Amino acid sequence: MLGEAWQAMGINRLRSALTMLGMVIGVGSVVLMMAIGQGAQYAVAQTISTMGSNLYILISGSTSAGGLRSGGGGGPTLTIADAAAIAELDGVVNVAPVQQGTQQLVAGASNWSSTVVGTTPPYLDARAWTIVSGYPFGDSDVRAATRVALIGQTAADNLFPNDDPLGKTMRIGQSPFMIIGVLGKKGQNLDGRDQDDTVIIPLTTAQRKVFGNPFPGSVRLILVQANSAEAMPAVEKSMVALLRQRHRLREGQDNDFYLRNLAAAADSAAETTRVMSVLLGAIASVSLLVGGIGIMNIMLVSVTERTREIGIRMAIGARQRDVLAQFLLEALMISIAGCLIGLLLGIGGALLTNALTDMVIVISGASILVAFTVAAGVGIFFGYYPALRAAALDPIEALRHQ
Amino acid sequence: MADPVIRVCGLGKSYRTAAGLFPALREVDLEIQAGEFVAIMGPSGSGKSTFMNLLGCLDTPSCGEYFLTGQRVAQLSRDQLAELRNRSIGFVFQGFNLLPRMTLADNVALPLVYAGVERDQRQRRALDELARVGLGEYGNALPSRISGGQQQRVAIARALVNSPQLILADEPTGNLDSHTSEEIMMLFAALNREGITIVLVTHEPDIAAHAGRQVRFRDGRVVSDAPTPARVPTAC
Known about the structure:
By secondary structure, chain A is of the alpha+beta class. Chain A has 13 helices and 14 strands.
């Protein structure tokens, strides 16, 4: 049966090749477009993952003095004790109170202004930040307010252009700090801010030695990481309830803190690229559809041309399902052969795009499988009607056909 | 006694035309026993083609009954008819009707494909049948490479390959010259002597003379049914 279908394809090579071309272009463009779309999704996902996943940021409420309201984080409403209480909630994995600001860094003859983050050890995990050399500070450093610092790549490059910063001393503001670790590179975040232009020090040290704090025990920011995206709504609810209770807020009173969901921003970026890749795929599928119609067209011509052959086959005992299977198999063979060539061209085109531009290309097994399944489906769908026409022919009429 | 190969009673077929219902075949009763060689004769429009289509299970009758080797045919479905054609009937057409892209062996083996026979066995049986009609060495040739007479021999081999009870030949010599026709008829006669039942449609008395029995149709009815008279040598 398979051999016969192959033979039938060989009878009119040019026609089979042109019919196949429709499928080749269809499948090729679907594969290429999906590779580009998934590449874009991958690039966004990479950026998002450097920010840390499933994060909330709690910001202390604003203050109002003489009719002048500060922005969020102005008031001393969040405390380190709040952070400790939140850490006990179900679904919360990392909690890090944060006090940060911009400070001048000085080392030898170099100086550089950078973001200084005062926090606790869970911060690194929450932000998925690695240490490439040295080691992180621990809880004891936070308790003792030691003057140790972790330095980001950009700050390190500017302060110690030709030197390993590890073990060196630098000043943050007026205080000397020992650099005990160098942070891994993260690149820019979704706003384009360089995440590596950072120095991380113990929270207590930051509050006492660097920024100063008029309200002991309070912080402006608390970073909270949930253990999964699914857990986030529950964590959000229990966190708000806990803080309202701890801050003794009555029913109807506004929260004295702000809650930001970083996942929401990440999701919207991911959603945008996802929509884009679906759109690309949809446009490419149109050509697949056109290819399928081409197959149907040629199969109808073929059935008409071979009416007499169908009559002969029926006379010598072909059942309707035999004739149906024969023509369906031919359509399927054209579409699958076209699909294989299209896959090769699509993958080749994707690799070429990758080589010639700086676009990220992701060729996934799933997209290949989808293209293949759809092509087979198109072959069956568009081959079915012509095959049905062939099978429904009256043997006497078909035999008489010239 | 065994069932006759063909038994039809009151067999009729009408076609719907613009002028109303046209009876192509009216109330035909006929029996053909195993081993007979019957020529069906008649002018065009006499209903003999319709009759052959019914005998060949290519069409279903409007009325009456048809028993092929005792099996009732009239109520069978399309696919059941196809299986019956495959197993019990071998067709030989006027236009040979070989598939042009297939080798002669593949052409002959085609009925066995639909009978579900294994490939090796198909090939072997096809070559056997080709040898039987005198074309044993042509298995790999294409139909276009051989003469009309040879093509008709291949068609006969194809009709024989699934060992049917009945060979139906529709004007098998219509496209052949008289010499080749004679050869083909000799082949039919030889097969008949081996016990194969043959029903042959022709309008040429010379061809019909090879059969043992002649049935004449006119206006959808059988008008005569008699053994072929002993051949009188004719002076040229």
